[in-house]
Amino acid sequence: MPVDKKLRPVDKKLRPADKKSSENDEIRNAGLKVTLPRVKILQILETSKQRHLSAEDVYKVLLEAGDDVGLATVYRVLTQFESAGLVERHNFDGGHSVFELDRGEHHDHMVCIKTGKVIEFHNEKIEELQKQIAEEHGYELTEHSLVLYVKPK
Fold first, then answer.
1. Alpha-carbon span 88 to 112, nearest angstrom
2. What is the rounded average pLDDT of the residues 72-87?
3. Pairing state of beta strands 87-90 and 98-101?
4. Which pTM value belongs to this model?
5. Taking a C-beta distance cutoff of 8 angstroms, is the pair 21, 34 a contact?
6. What is the mean pLDDT of residues 10-29?
7. Mean pLDDT for the chain overall
8. For residues 49, 60, 85 and 117, what is the CA-based torsion angle, rounded to 10 degrees?
């Protein structure tokens, strides 16, 4: 006999549907199944004051919240998010990968070599100069990534 899913007892702690529907929609629209680890990791990325987080940073936030999600799961989910276009992975010199939500707006980065702090910026003059340089060499600029390594004065 089929069981009516509406009548089955459900542990509310484990129901991703109880989370914000915007995260669920984002995950679904990216072609991924909505799972509790995916929802929690996406919420961390969306609510963190720090825009560039390593897998270890995400894992620490989950641990502090008492969530039982392993580091391997965090890596796997972040890689799935990258493949689905939800996040961008950056491999800055001197360390591990960091992830940021892909919101579709282009920006470049500065990385402080003393602290590892990542600063985002956009400069239209730099953007135009890069296009001009590509054209002078007979090319059309299709995409670029600019990272400036800086130190405090």
1. 20
2. 95
3. antiparallel
4. 0.73
5. no
6. 60
7. 84
8. 50
